UniProtKB/TrEMBL annotation:
The lineage of its organism: Bacteria, Pseudomonadati, Bacteroidota, Flavobacteriia, Flavobacteriales. Its main location: cytoplasm. This is Deoxyribose-phosphate aldolase. It comes from Mariniflexile aquimaris. It catalyses: 2-deoxy-D-ribose 5-phosphate = D-glyceraldehyde 3-phosphate + acetaldehyde. It is found in: Cytoplasm. InterPro entries: Aldolase_TIM (IPR013785), DeoC (IPR011343), DeoC/FbaB/LacD_aldolase (IPR002915), DeoC_typeI (IPR028581). The active site is at 90 (proton donor/acceptor), 152 (schiff-base intermediate with acetaldehyde), 181 (proton donor/acceptor). GO terms for molecular function: deoxyribose-phosphate aldolase activity. Catalyzes a reversible aldol reaction between acetaldehyde and D-glyceraldehyde 3-phosphate to generate 2-deoxy-D-ribose 5-phosphate. Gene3D superfamilies: Aldolase class I. Keywords: Cytoplasm, Lyase, Schiff base. Its EC number is 4.1.2.4.
Amino acid sequence: MKQLGSYIDHTLLKATATKDDIIQLCNEAKQYQFQSVCVNSCYASLALKELKNSEVKVCCVIGFPLGAMSTLAKVAETKQAIKDGADEIDMVLNIGLLKSKDFDAVWKDIEAVKKSMPNNTLKVILETCYLEELEIIKASELAIQSGADFIKTSTGFGTGGATIHDVNLMKSVAKGQVKIKASGGIKDYKTALEYINLGVERLGTSSGIAIVTGETSTDNNY
């Protein structure tokens, strides 16, 4: 197994996150050698500055947390985030359109974002807590069809986070074509290891330090 920290997107997405909080997040990511920091797009340039001369990537969320804004808005936010220093983008698919069975609109939404960032990693958030099994399967297929590099379980802002069952469903569709990111509710080493052993390539969590130090986080976020 790779070093545990390299699986972790060290995450801070709450509305009250300050500049000082983001700077602390970046310093922690450097200290524990996390794969990336995951922040709202307004902090992309600050994160880039703080992570200069490190291996830690900048990841930004797009269309977060509802996925319900226009495709044009998602594309514009993506382009700005990349311009400001984001290496990776985690976008929320349009859940309402998926549930409406407007599958063309869902994949065109994802595809438009991917086309605006062809050389960067795109993770598509399915928000599995709101989806039936068949919807998780269909969402995974649409994301893969649209050029996603990862399919991701959750925003951490829904009614639930990652589950082993949902990840197994996603894995059955991915079949190695894309990678899987589990996020939401992963707060300790044991849980993190369960997902890694399933084949998950990335973990989204605000409890990264607790995970790599073998503690259990009391953080209520993500």
